[in-house]
């Protein structure tokens, strides 16, 4: 009993800086979030309509130490009392990743703590295991399970044999779902950040106003979003004359009525969700999963969350889904994944571990036992 109490206190500081959120969090060994601080930079990128890597990495540099101090203070813990430090070290914008991973390595080195280099995609996948408050408990889950990450950079399906034990079984062959939301938002004349603004615009719109076909691909579990984007673009602006950069369009998005913009946003959102549910169904038919883990920024979308709940309830599969604040980028998921590694006896990584732009989970056949 005593050992369990001590274990539940082991605290890991997580740091996340892969894109435009500077984040730090403290999570205990029961996967309870003790603090979760996120400084977003949306306002810095607004005028460019998307994230500018150089601006993002400079902003991370300014924010990283105050954010870490705040996370430690809110958890009421000093750096020397931690069990380890973890950072997202791939995938992401390399200049941004380097700020968080270097800060984490420096803190680990200075305090002589183990360091966990965490794959951001794996962290999204298991964020549904996080819990909050003294009474909160990490959800029970059975394996094998299905895993789905839908973010700005990734759309990936996994077969999971256990926490941290993943095999990639499907992925997008072009854009990630979040990326497609962002581009669709630009086409509709909506401001950055595209995904949440498109969701807002879609409210009250008619999802059957524009019909999209489900893409049929050589691999039944792969995704494709590029056809949806093209169809939306031609609907908004007309079929272009000419090709590539020289193409000219008959209309601009400013000519859309508010009602048509709402209908098109709702139709696009509904088509993207239909594709996600279709791929989940095909994957679940293949091996009868006991649970489905979902994560990534797009899972913050309320219509997708509803569709996932209905789908999993209809099939009797447990849905492990994080609250919205742990779907979008955050550091609690980084510290949480490091806790899963610590729990399996993994002692962490050398400080020489490289920071990389690409996820191991996005490459060819994914390795088992992701870091
Ligand atoms: O996981 P995330 O915060 O960062 C990456 O790892 O990429 O995901 C960001 C993506 C963006 O493409 C954003 O537009 C999308 O998630 N997103 C949404 C919503 N909130 C964030 N997409 C649709 N509806 C939302 N409510
Ligand atoms: Zn992410």
List keywords for this structure.
alpha/beta, Nucleotidyltransferase, domain 5, 5-stranded mixed sheet, 11 helices, globular, binds 5'-O-[(R)-(carboxyoxy)(hydroxy)phosphoryl]adenosine, binds zinc ion
Helix content: 25-40%
How many helical stretches?
Answer: 11
Domain count: the total is 2
Number of strands: 10
Instruction: Write down the secondary-structure element order.
Output: HEEEHHEHEHEEEHHHHEHEH
Distance between the termini: 30 Å
Parts with pLDDT < 50 across at least 5 consecutive residues: 1-8
Overall 3D form? globular
Per the CATH scheme, the topology name of the largest domain is Nucleotidyltransferase, domain 5
Q: What is bound: which ligands?
A: 5'-O-[(R)-(carboxyoxy)(hydroxy)phosphoryl]adenosine, zinc ion
Which band does the percent of strand residues land in?
Answer: 15-25%
| CATH superfamily placement of the largest domain | ATPase, nucleotide binding domain
Radius of gyration: 21 Å
Task: List the SSEs and their pairings.
Elements: H1 2-9, E1 11-16, E2 21-28, E3 33-40, H2 42-45, H3 53-75, E4 84-90, H4 94-111, E5 115-119, H5 120-125, E6 145-150, E7 155-162, E8 165-171, H6 177-187, H7 194-202, H8 226-237, H9 258-287, E9 291-295, H10 302-315, E10 318-320, H11 332-343
Parallel strand pairs: 1-4, 4-5, 6-9, 9-10
Antiparallel strand pairs: 1-2, 2-3, 6-7, 7-8
Helix pairs in contact: 3-4, 6-7, 6-8, 6-9, 7-9, 9-10
Bound molecules: 5'-O-[(R)-(carboxyoxy)(hydroxy)phosphoryl]adenosine and zinc ion.
Residues 19, 124, 151-153, 178-179, 181-182, 193-196, 199, 296-298, 300-301, 328-329 line the site of 5'-O-[(R)-(carboxyoxy)(hydroxy)phosphoryl]adenosine.
């Amino acid at each position: 009993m005593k050992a369990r109490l001590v274990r539940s206190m082991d605290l890991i500081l997580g740091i996340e800086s892969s894109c435009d959120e500077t984040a730090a969090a403290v999570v205990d060994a029961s996967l309870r979030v003790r603090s979760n601080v996120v400084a977003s930079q949306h306002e810095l990128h607004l005028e460019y309509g998307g994230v500018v890597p150089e601006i993002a990495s400079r902003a991370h540099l300014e924010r990283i130490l105050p954010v870490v101090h705040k996370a430690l203070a809110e958890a009421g813990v000093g750096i020397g009392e931690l069990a380890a430090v973890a950072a997202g070290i791939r995938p992401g914008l390399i200049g941004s990743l380097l700020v968080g991973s270097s800060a984490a390595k420096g803190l680990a080195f200075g305090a002589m703590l183990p360091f966990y280099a965490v794959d951001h995609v794996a962290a999204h996948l298991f964020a549904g295991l996080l819990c909050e408050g003294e009474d909160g408990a990490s959800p029970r889950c059975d394996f094998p399970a299905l895993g789905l990450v839908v973010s700005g950079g990734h759309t990936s399906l996994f077969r999971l044999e256990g926490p941290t034990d993943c095999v990639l079984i499907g992925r997008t062959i072009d854009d990630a779902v979040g990326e497609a939301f962002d581009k669709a938002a630009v086409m509709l004349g909506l401001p950055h950040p595209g995904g949440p603004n498109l969701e807002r615009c879609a409210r009250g719109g008619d999802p059957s106003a524009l019909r999209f076909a489900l893409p049929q691909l050589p691999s039944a579990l792969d995704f494709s979003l590029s056809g949806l984007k093209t169809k939306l673009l031609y609907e908004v602006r007309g079929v272009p004359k000419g090709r590539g950069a020289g193409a000219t369009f008959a209309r601009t998005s400013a000519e859309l009525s508010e009602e048509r913009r709402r209908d098109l946003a709702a139709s696009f959102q509904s088509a993207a969700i239909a594709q996600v549910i279709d791929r989940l169904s095909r994957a679940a038919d293949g091996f009868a999963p006991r649970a489905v883990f979902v994560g990534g920024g797009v899972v913050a979308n309320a219509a997708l969350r509803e569709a996932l709940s209905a789908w999993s309830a209809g099939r009797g599969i447990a849905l492990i889904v994080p609250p919205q604040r742990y779907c979008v980028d955050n550091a609690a998921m980084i510290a949480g994944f490091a806790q899963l590694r610590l729990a399996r006896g993994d002692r962490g990584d050398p400080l020489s571990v490289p920071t990389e732009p690409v996820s191991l989970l996005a490459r060819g056949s994914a390795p088992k036992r992701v870091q």
